[in-house]
Amino acid sequence: MDTWLILVWLSGVLTCLSASNVTTVSSSAGVSALPSSARATTVAAPDQEEVTRSTEGASPSPPISLRPGTPTLGPGATPPPTHGATFSPSAPVNSTATTGPTGPTSPSPNATPLPEGDSSGTWAEPWEANSSTGATSTSGAFTTPDETPIIAVMVALSSLLVIVFIIIVLYMLRFKKYKQAGSHSNSFRLSNGRTDDMEPQSVPLLARSPSTNRKYPPLPVDRLEEEINRRMADDNKLFREEFNALPACPIQATCEAASKEENKEKNRYVNILPYDHSRVHLTPVEGVPDSDYINASFINGYQEKNKFIAAQGPKEETVNDFWRMIWEQNTATIVMVTNLKERKECKCAQYWPDQGCWTYGNIRVSVEDVTVLVDYTVRKFCIQQVGDVTNKKPQRLVTQFHFTSWPDFGVPFTPIGMLKFLKKVKTCNPQYAGAIVVHCSAGVGRTGTFVVIDAMLDMMATEKKVDVYGFVGRIRAQRCQMVQTDMQYVFIYQALLEHYLYGDTELEVTSLESHLQKIYTRVPGTSSNGLEEEFKKLTSIKIQNEKMRTGNLPANMKKNRVLQIIPYEFNRVIIPVKRGEENTDYVNASFIDGYRQKDSYIASQGPLQHTIEDFWRMIWEWKSCSIVMLTELEERGQEKCAQYWPCDNPMACGDITMELKKEDECESYTVRDLLVTNTRENKSRQVRQFHFHGWPEVGIPSDGKGMINIIAAVQKQQQQSGNHPITVHCSAGAGRTGTFCALSTVLERVKAEGILDVFQTVKSLRLQRPHMVQTLVGAPRLSGLPPGRQERARSQVRGIEPPPPPTPSGWGAGAGAPGGNSHRDGTPGHRQKRSVSWLAGGSTGTEPTKITWGAGEGLAGSRASSLGRGRTLTAERS
């Protein structure tokens, strides 16, 4: 910065010096030189543009003509103001300047004015003679010469050249400095404060000055929360400093193979190249030069050499090479941390078939199973090397874990999804398989983030400390720019803190009973039990009031039933704006993610009388065909919800009309079928409302039977009407609504995987809408079923017809059994026994009942594959 200021100062001095060399010499008629105060005059042209002219040292120039009657100017006099002076190129002039051997002179008294219309159009500046000199012009006004436009241009060009030279010097100095430092960053700051990590042709790299003296030692886990809060202060200032101090690349690293002309087209980004010492070598193809190259690098894990292969997202022309690498490295797990397209840019070619099989080079890939979940998709491929009939290779199973919740900009809103995803990868990767292939688009940013989180979780478990700075520096010696942005760097710490504070809260249903006994036991040193301690952690989640801007607008405040429960901006439900009316896109409702897909639910408050129209506009706009109502219209003498549906006669709200077609009373809820019509669009839809009556005015339902029944009914309705959002509301849209969403999500995962995680499910809900699941007793729990109800409950929880009786061994149907799970090649599927207990809430007095079903490898399958796989459901007395 000091060099910059000095050079700028020098440029100003040089500019002044160049200007001071322009001088004016008096004419041979004896006109004295003008003083410094008179050396520059400003002439206003007819269009009022001011032209500043320097008269000192002026070269010969055409004379300037002013109106007659100009006052005299003596040797020491100041020139008169020239306001109103005009320039007329075609006007006749009174005199002309002649140039002698020594410079410009005053015009001759006998000078003849130019004829009118002369093409030399000139300026004239007459002055009256001073009495002490006795010099006069023939017209009564004495003239002095001035600089020419050519000289003015030369002066301007000289100044411009000096400035350009200085800029070039500065650029060269800065470039040399950063080149020596060898530290680059690929991130650039966007207007919304988030950081983008990619460009179509290359990854942007901003130079930085590494701090070689600053040390960032490993951090004990018990100081993790304190240190993260300290470093995040002042807009992550200390985190940015730490990130900027990371080494960019090893000094001796080379990229000769990647830089070969034959390989340049194989690189997605010209500045993200694998180092020669760590790149993956493919087996050369005979007759194809440089066929051993692929843009991929071996990366160490925590205490495990070459645990990962960090690769760029395959291009169309490198898909065959990608599968060749998978086969040759004996890879069983692929981790994909990008979508195929983001912001309309291709980030990765689709290197797998949607269904059936496809051959890539000499590798045949067939799709065995696809599981779509809210944060990621799991695809199972069967691959086989083809081409050599005499030496046919055996088939291999490769699983791709595709994380789909990474936003186009920045990082995920919460690390919960990434931690679940990473655990699934670690659990499913075979022990003796080859390196795990991880790729995003360039294979450095998100890829590096995944690798670092994996390694630091292992380090946390082993050493009770983390060394993010040191580990990132080490893997950057294997592949450039691993962890590209400061936001990714901070996200790593947030994921580690999330794991440290809350741990792994997933449960196999087989361990549920022992876990419940544990959490109902008093925690040593406290007066509360484990369940109460868990709920305290949930209530400590900060409510982000600053992210409720729209709901807090004065025009929208009256639309909120409870002022503390307002939707966040990032997931609020937006409805069309009414023509000519402002602030009509707001309704107090939030999108909520489910188990399998995003925005599975709309959590809404119970409509107020003046927001019924907005409620139905929301239902129509987002094509919600199922409404779950968890409150009565009035409870304890207070209105909880306005009646928004018709009874005998049709009901109209703006362009929306509703007509009750059918009403059925079930054991604990009422089902109403409504015909909803948009008169403006002239279209109609069927909407079904499930009105639950089993929630008491105070407390919670005595058992979970009614909730299980209504959840099963809603899921059946969804399968018939399509997977549009389910609208759920109570009064404020948080307590009972959150309990329903949580229980529905938990049960859906139990059915699919035999795993439940109540804590993280509720935590995720609270991050999406304030106060979801408001009380400890409102937290979802598994309640008992009375005797004689097991078979019906099993059918409703499963959402399918009761399966055949179990085998005598108690295991699910195996090979050869009707509906048994088996692989495509006919080999029997493997199953293990899992059980879940619906424990009594303590108020029914009934004996607990255990519902057990066989669970197999196909449990994580899609909705279509998870039903009808022949799993056996049995009921046992505990």
TrEMBL record:
- Binding-site list for substrate: 408, 440-446, 484
Query: Locate the Tyrosine-protein phosphatase domain: which residues?
Result: 239-499, 531-775
Q: Where in the cell is it found?
A: Cell junction, Focal adhesion; Cell membrane
Q: Does the keyword Nucleotide-binding apply?
A: no
Question: Signal sequence: where?
Answer: 1-19
Which membrane topology term applies here? Single-pass type I membrane protein
The UniProt record lists the keyword Cell membrane = yes
Xref: Pfam families? Y_phosphatase
Which residues are in coiled coils? none
How would you classify this enzyme at the top EC level? hydrolase
- GO cellular component terms attached to this protein's record: focal adhesion; plasma membrane
* EC assignment: 3.1.3.48
In the UniProt entry, which residues are flagged as the active site? 440, 730
Q: Where is this region: Disordered?
A: 30-141, 184-219, 779-878
Q: Which molecular function term from Gene Ontology is one that the record holds?
A: protein tyrosine phosphatase activity
Q: Per the record, where are the segments of Polar residues compositional bias?
A: 184-193
Name the keywords, alphabetized. Cell junction, Cell membrane, Glycoprotein, Hydrolase, Membrane, Phosphoprotein, Protein phosphatase, Repeat, Signal, Transmembrane, Transmembrane helix
Q: Which InterPro entries match?
A: Prot-tyrosine_phosphatase-like, Protein-Tyr_Phosphatase, PTP_cat, Tyr_Pase_AS, Tyr_Pase_cat, Tyr_Pase_dom, Tyr_Pase_rcpt_a/e-type, Tyr_Pase_rcpt_alpha
Q: Which domain of life is it from?
A: Eukaryota
Q: Write down the SMART domains for this protein, in alphabetical order.
A: PTPc (SM00194), PTPc_motif (SM00404)
Tyrosine specific protein phosphatases domain span: 419-490, 705-775
The similarity comment for this entry is:
Belongs to the protein-tyrosine phosphatase family. Receptor class 4 subfamily.
State its role.
Answer: Tyrosine protein phosphatase which is involved in integrin-mediated focal adhesion formation. Following integrin engagement, specifically recruits BCAR3, BCAR1 and CRK to focal adhesions thereby promoting SRC-mediated phosphorylation of BRAC1 and the subsequent activation of PAK and small GTPase RAC1 and CDC42.
Spell out the protein name for this chain. Answer: Receptor-type tyrosine-protein phosphatase alpha
Query: From which organism does this entry originate?
Result: Ornithorhynchus anatinus
